[in-house]
Amino acid sequence: MIEWNEQGEVRNARWRSESGAVAPRRVVVADDTLSADTAYRLACEGTGLLWQGDFQNARMLLQALMRRVDRKPAKAAAKAAEKMAAATPAEAFHLHRQAQAQRARVLSALLIPLEGDYGIDLRRAPDLRQACTEAWGPATGERSVASLRELLGLVGAHEWRKKGVEVPALGAAPNNRIHPYYGVFSPVRGEYVDLVASADLPSKALAFDIGTGTGVLSALLVRRGVQRVVATEQDPRALACARDNLQRLGVLAQVELQSVDLFPAGRAPLVVCNPPWLPARPSSPIEHAVYDEGSRMLRGFLAGLADHLEPGGEGWLILSDLAEHLGLRTREQLMGWIADAGLKVLGRADIRPRHAKAADAGDALHAARAAEVTSLWRLAAA
Fold this sequence. Notes:
By secondary structure, this protein is an alpha/beta fold. It folds into two domains: 2-159, no CATH class; 165-381, 3-Layer(aba) Sandwich (Rossmann fold), CATH 3.40.50. The chain is built from 13 helices and 15 strands. The protein has helices spanning 36-44, 55-70, 74-86, 89-107, 129-136, 148-163, 191-198, 216-223, 236-248, 296-305, 322-325, 331-340, 366-371; strands spanning 2-6, 9-15, 27-30, 48-51, 110-114, 144-147, 165-166, 177-178, 207-210, 229-232, 255-258, 268-273, 309-320, 343-351, 374-381. The protein has a seven-stranded mixed β-sheet with strand order 11-10-9-12-13-15-14, sandwiched between helices. Helix 1 crosses helix 2 (55-70) and helix 5 packs across helix 6 (148-163).
């Protein structure tokens, strides 16, 4: 719960945070009279600003906070740049994540009260009830508070879900769109999909898709002629998302969705897995699609693969080497895990990233991103 004092009366509401952030200890009521400089000072101190003014003015204040948090004094900017330049790639990565986390904490200080039906009782407030329902589930009638930054993220996710992401490997438009749900990794980076689309299939009888997410790889395998796919996933949101996408694409009848950790029972001639690429601790539930602490999913897939392959079968591991360029994992470690699991490498297909950050020299991790290669490793039992 979150508490605040309003006109001498203590009030409270449910605290919502997808990042798992704790509710601010101190909350003050804020409105259109609050200056951006004062708001920034309070936010940096960890004070929550519960907005009671015009909603559009709150959005403008958030933009003003962004400008202030990104505009460091010359001395501080020079010191930070010097620290990054002297850091190892792994240290630079962790410094970058720390800076991102600090930025998020400041920008999440601007809070919006929600009614029991997710309505917002503020002047010029949009109707965000559908976006909230998609992310949080049906309203329970309980009043709540969430950061404006998170609410705008819900709106963005709602628009992506409505519009969908075109995946050329699935065929011609319009029957090639994936509609990602809030908190489910979107296939906006299509390199890994293209690798699966071009690799020679060892069999078209059956495939396992481990950690299916939006269901894009399951759909692709069916479109390539695989008769049956068993797709696994732990996240209820992702399972619902995959079911919806497979239904939209007309392939659900050939895909069995299972709520399990990693492998389903049995063996298959093809087992596909695209685990999170970076072995770091997720700072929110949404980040589990990107960060795999201790390489848990990657190592679990490798360790169990041989026991779930039919004789002569192949395991396809889709993995970026970004972690290697960041000093978070070595190629020797990866090859050691493959050997320890009783596996051998049959071949590897590589592809360069096409996303904007790979060419952005101003990105804090540009050197590693520019060198990144995504690979499809063809593995078999040794």
